[in-house]
Amino acid sequence: MKKSLTLGLLLLAATAFTPVNAADIVLKASHNANPDEPYHTGMQRMSELLKEKTGGKAEIQVFSNAQLGDEMESIQGTQLGIVDIAVTANEVMANFVPDMNIFSLPYLFKDAEHMDRAAGSDKVHEYVDQVMAKKGYRLLGLFFAGTRHIMSKQPIASIDDIKGKKIRTLNNPAHIDAFKSFGANPTPMAYGELYGALETGVVDGAEAANTNYYARKFYEVAPNWAMVGWVELVAPVVMGSARFDALPKDVQTALLEAGAEAAKAERKTYRESDLRNLENLQKLKVNITHPKTEPFREASKTIYGKYITSDEQKELLKIINNIE
Description:
By secondary structure, this protein is α/β, with parallel strands linked by helices.
């Protein structure tokens, strides 16, 4: 944490000396993906839109590859003034806003298209923003991080094939409980450690989307790809409430509009990326299997009662279920 925050401060200092004709307001955004992945292009689009909508008054400077800290540190940075905007997997955000765990539940959405409709719904956005505001955050948009499947060192043809297997998950209670319900041995670890852990056999597999499975070349050490679509991974784009409230009203409005438009574009880009990278995986002769998903869906139902407890969560689940 300390090292990353120090790096963040140095980067902020390095970018403080801007030309006189630069935007009056420069917001610094952090994410942990590569510059060629949808997170980055989505944030770049948000910056372009913000600049257009404010006549050049405001823009966003985007830092990729966790330059300002990993996802946990980036969220903390929005409260410390080190980061203005953070793009993070919902599973990390839920550590700060527990009601967000609802988005981490397995098979919450019918498919990626249903997730897109929900994420683009004004009703969902407004409700999630209200929930986040209680914890000191503002929601700018909901990005997509792909339909998640399971990579493994050994083939997976059915739910029985992951029984007792060490599967890397995010350090999120809902993810951990989901894989326990599948019969696996969930093993949380940092994303940056995953390739080596697969290579050395520390874990037997992990969950991912077509896009990052291909982009990070995980197929080299886990050549089996079981397409179970166990979760549609949501990635909130958030800002600290204090920083947002300090912006001029016109910039606030432009930022919310830019966030919604960029999020819609990012979700489309990620869906297209997932389809394209599935073709790339097929060309690489990755062993792709299609286990029946009904046993996964049935097993996952056992954990819903643990996470749908508050009135806010029940209402949000109702809103999502009512979206056609």
